[in-house]
Amino acid sequence: MWVLALLAALLAAVAGPAPTAIIDRLISWLGCVERHGLNSGYLGGWNERGHDADWYVRLRSALNSAGCSSAQLVGNDSGWSGADDMANNPAFNDAASTIGVHYSCDGGDDGDARSCQSTQTGRDLGKPLRDSENGSQDMNTGAPALIWAITRGYIDARMTGYFNRPLLAAVHPNVPFSTVGLATAGSPRSGHHAIGSSTWATAQVTPFTRPGWKFIDSAAGRLGGSESHGSYVTIRSNTGSDYSTILETTTGQGKGTATASAAHSLGPPRSDDFEADADGTEATYLSDMQGSSEVQPRTGRPGRCVQQVAPVKPIEWQDDSDSYALIGDTGWSNYTVSSDVLLRSAGTTELLGRANTQLRPRSHVNAHYFRIRDTGRWWIEKTHTDGSNHTPGTGEWHDLALTFQDSTISARTGGRQIGSVTDTSFQPGQAGPGIQGYRTDQFDNLSITAGPGSAGGVATGQVTPALNTAKCLDDYTDPTAAGAALDIWDCNGGANQRWNVPSAS
């Protein structure tokens, strides 16, 4: 049995780039994994997008020819249609070693997993059946579904593998699924973290079994024969006489506490010339949202900078965005974000500010942009104005700045203001550099400086508890009178969840 607290999936497309090119890329990726001292035992197909049986057959042949015969293929990382096709296609059946489906239990990725399902066709193939993606639930409220999917996944559906994503949600609280996994760490500068109930649930399984152990059918079932009482499974070592019995009940348990460092904000002011970072590393506190930003040698002058190093748009799983990165707190309101920028090729580069709510896909982020093109065209979005009184061109460094002061948003380059707009759509939020498309522009001397009213003033936005940033303070009956009752509810961006909060000095 494999019970892992991470999602080990590789997304490969069978549409878009030629299928042969995808196979070549996968083999190249395996070589990269090996060079970094890692071992990849499994490869998947196109995540949740069906499958091409012939492509799996050709991939299996290519892997064998490239000396990668030990890599096993999982088909098809979607539903049970892969098993149906394996039953009718001997070549596909021989190519795939494991059947992988996503969210086989009740309710899918947001369900309670009180019972789980597989198909008779899938079970009859005699291959390992694995939930190759689970998770997507809060680290506390999702704990019952986690343990039920493990125990009842075998009892009901004979699933012998469970992959939960992610291990640690070290993401900003404005990112989707910010409280999933075993623990959260949404304040990277402080070291603050929270351990979820899912950790306790996982700890009842992972220390007591190993990959290769086998379930004992005669020692698995429901307590008292009833789903409401709980369930149990027994797993025995494949190399010795050890075995473990795991029981789950519906009452919930826990043991011990953990005290983390207190969360605290990150400036402003905040500036970085990246000279303290090694080439090829990530810049401190600058989080990639899309693309890949790394510290690299500067072009045209000595020193280091941050460069977006992905030269082409990746294969999209959904309607993803241009490349960009963010830094800071979602409560930042009045500030200036500035950076030196080198356009290494023709195109558009940008600074983002007041970036707050991010939705799926990543192209749906609430933010304001100062965008400038090598031809001289520039504009400010969300509300925008256009102009052409500065032509940056390519191959030279330029300084850009985007200032937020209450409802006024202004853009500056070359030391002078080139335009401003009035907009109140997004009040507080993070800042960062970005690029339209996937070019390899460079950014240096990234700086955020506070504006008047940013210290001791008032920010407007959602109020979330530290233990569960997916929940918000909610004025659920919309009253305005003194003494109105409030509660904690799922964050939904509604007006009844927006509050004026004095910012810390």
What does this structure look like?
The strands form 7 sheets. Strands 14, 16, 17, 19, 24, 25, 26 and 28 form an 8-stranded antiparallel β-sheet that branches. This protein is α+β, with helices and mostly antiparallel strands and 505 residues long. Strand 5 (129-135), helix 6 and strand 6 form a beta-alpha-beta unit. It contains 7 helices and 32 strands. The protein starts with a strand and ends with a strand. The chain is 14% helix and 31% strand. The chain is globular. Helix 1 packs across helix 2 (53-65) and helix 6 (143-157) packs parallel to helix 7.
The gross shape turns out to be globular
The biggest sheet, with number of strands, parallel, antiparallel or mixed sense and barrel status, is: 8 strands, antiparallel
Mean pLDDT: 84
The N- to C-terminal Cα distance equals 52 Å
Total number of beta strands: 32
Q: What radius of gyration results from the CA coordinates?
A: 26 Å
How much helix is in the residues? 10-25%
- The SS-based structural class is alpha+beta
List low-pLDDT spans: 1-17, 383-389
- Helical segment count: 7
Beta-strand percentage? 25-35%
List keywords for this structure.
505 residues; alpha+beta; 8-stranded antiparallel beta sheet; 7-stranded antiparallel beta sheet; 7 helices; disordered N terminus
Structure summarized in a few sentences:
This protein is of the alpha+beta class and 505 residues long. It is built from seven helices and 32 strands. Strand 5, helix 6 (143-157) and strand 6 form a beta-alpha-beta unit.
